[in-house]
Amino acid sequence: MLSVLRKIVQEVSTAPDLESVLDLIVRRIQRAMRTQVCSIFLFDPQLQRYVLRATQGLNQEAVGQVSLSMGEGIVGQVGQRAEPINLEDASRHPAFHYLQATGEERYHAFLGVPIIHHRSVLGVLVVQQVEHRRFDESEEAFMVTVSAQLAGIIAHAEATGSVNGEQHPQARVQPQRDRHFNGVAAAPGVAIGTVIVATLAAELETVSDKRAVDMEHELASFRAALASVKDDIRTVSQGLAQRLQSDEQALFDVYLRMLDDPALSDAIEQAIVDGNWAQGALREVILTQVRQFNAMEDAYLRERATDIRDLGRRILSYLQESAGPVAIDCADDSILIADELSPTMLGLVPEDKLVGLVSVSGSGNSHAAIMARAVGIPTVMGVVDLPFTRLEGRQIIVDGYSGRVYVNPSDKLLEAFREVIREERAVAAGLESLRDLPAETTDGYRMPLWVNTGLVADVTRSLERGAEGIGLYRTEIPFMIRDFFPSEQEQLNSYRSQLEAFAPRPVTMRTLDIGGDKALPYFPIEEDNPFLGWRGIRVTLDHPEIFLVQVRAMLRASEGLNNLRIMLPMVTSVHEVEEALRQIDQALTELQEEGYAVQRPLVGVMVEVPAAVYQVRRFARLVDFVSVGSNDLTQYILAVDRNNPRVAGLYAAYHPAVLRALQYIARETRKEGKPVSICGEMAADPGGSLLLMAMGYEVLSMNANNLPRVKSAIRGVSLARAQSLLTRVLRMDDAEEIHQYLRQSLKQLGLGQLTRPRLPHQTGDSA
Ligand code: PEP
Ligand code: MG
């Protein structure tokens, strides 16, 4: 059964549209289970009914015609209860509702299982038989398994159809107006703009459809790319001729024959003539052929699917190379969509044209999201069902407050969101006046507000917003946008510009923190569990040559300025801190011996893992300061991957366990007389900043963009009030309750404008 299941899932996942997906499912399941009937009812949210969408065994004319409301008939019952119903004779069930047009009166045995995706029931999968019999346990288990696996594919195909308007036997379905896709709110704000899809290098699935501007040019590029791939294969084949057996050599001939086959190039050229650009036409034709080969019974022919995909990728590489970067001539208001957004992709669209970001994978605390918040671009991540390759050039709305992406927005919805944007601008303008005022509570407590930096633009923005220091300079960012490790001199130059721009204010430089979701293209780390793997200090202690060069560059950059602080990420054990301190001392001595006038900087540790929480006093004794990385600390305390959209709902910064840990760290560090600060995203939240101030954090470091909001929150309360807020919150058991309470409190303090605005879907303006 397992292999049958695998085969069904594989075949279905390459079907081109919802119709074929559903059709394949009913045909394959009917055959696998040897039943007379297999049908799928899908829930139509507009009709609020389960509609028969595909069947094998019932009358085909009934497809699209018969439907049941929620709870109506046995199908409606399966949907409502979200569990299987298995009956010897359906007609004897009290909820039985005879659907005349289907011809189902002959069938007695009935098994219906719900199709559930992300907790909601998409529809019901049914098998029926003439005999009176209960389907046995293994049959029921098979149906539940197959339905769970197919749910995601159905959801995706349904989403694509609703965006595009798909050809159904009954009617041409209009693209659904105001259709929205849910993701994770990653950077606040609203954006209305035109989509640009970031295609990954040689990834056919990420290529979008785009109207060709110059058909002749597209045809010529395709022919040139094809010729280059043929040349490559011939060259490799000749080079290996001596070393290969004749049957291995034959593989190259197969490749060349496939490329020479006019059917392939004709189909691609036809798709270009029909209006698609070369890359889109290539994807269209290659993926169709892959699907066709995959569906073949013959194992040898099925293998050809891999070959054709490989050839497609090779051609794509050449096309991408000749086309150059994605977004040269983008619209003024561009929204970049990527399958997996990375910090470096932010550079694909010029900053003044980029208004919004959407990522199909990733989550709200991944580093791409943190960067997006730093530059203040509304972002939604983890929109797993978004058919992004179909959206090139379309107008969409990105709602970075509630994590929604609207496709095909109506004029009414557009106007409602334009109003939100106007309100946002008014709030931001109001906050500008705070620039030169201190972050001081109404009872005179002064809270230093620092910034987190990494991008070059952060420095100017931070100074404009009145930052008093840098609490976290993410040094890995300049490492990520290069092709190899930067030299000591190159590092020195970029560190010097940060230190100079802020001097005499302190600049906290974190030693290289790679691993997890931050990869260097030239230093790949492949791991099953990267967040529990080789990351942060673990990598650099294993590579003293990288660590020492970085520390030397930092120390030299600070010569004469002496405003450097060095911070160690991801420390778990005392010996790691001791070893890092030893290496820092070594670098310092060497430089002094070489004649540089370098001084010992302040050195601190980040508390980001639970082990460090419980040892924080021991760490505090060894170093000059402690800074909490609440982004990682939250993921490790809650055991929730910060990058995984599937568990994004469980990533709760205000979880009582996280708050207690934060309070404990502040208290314990202060017992050692060492300063304690925080540089995780929680410090950037107006409500969170009040709690942290009350806990005794002495510096809050955040993205420059949020600094004015946090300042406004602090200036709007007394320390005493923040402390009573904390006391109340620490008695609560639930993160959501805490969140709501903080929002309410800000409103009562007259700081309602710092919370998120009222959105169209909350006022009932949207579909
Ligand atoms: C953190 O983990 O809170 C932190 C500040 O570091 P990063 O987000 O870069 O992992
Ligand atoms: Mg971290």
From TrEMBL:
EC number: 2.7.3.9
Name this protein carries in UniProt: phosphoenolpyruvate--protein phosphotransferase
PROSITE patterns given in the database record: PEP_ENZYMES_2
Pfam families cross-referenced by the UniProt entry: GAF, PEP-utilisers_N, PEP-utilizers, PEP-utilizers_C
Chemical reaction(s) catalysed: L-histidyl-[protein] + phosphoenolpyruvate = N(pros)-phospho-L-histidyl-[protein] + pyruvate
PANTHER family, per database record: PHOSPHOENOLPYRUVATE-DEPENDENT PHOSPHOTRANSFERASE SYSTEM (PTHR46244:SF1), PHOSPHOENOLPYRUVATE-PROTEIN PHOSPHOTRANSFERASE (PTHR46244)
GAF domain sequence ranges: 17-164
SMART domains assigned: GAF
Gene Ontology molecular function: any one: phosphoenolpyruvate-protein phosphotransferase activity
Keywords tagged on the record: Cytoplasm, Phosphotransferase system, Sugar transport, Transferase, Transport
Coiled coil: none
Signal peptide bounds: none
Cellular localization per UniProt: Cytoplasm
InterPro entries xref list: GAF, PEP-util_enz_mobile_dom, PEP-utilizing_PTS_enzyme, PEP_util_C, PEP_util_CS, PTS_EI-like, PTS_EIN
Positions of transmembrane segments: none
Organism: Marinobacterium weihaiense
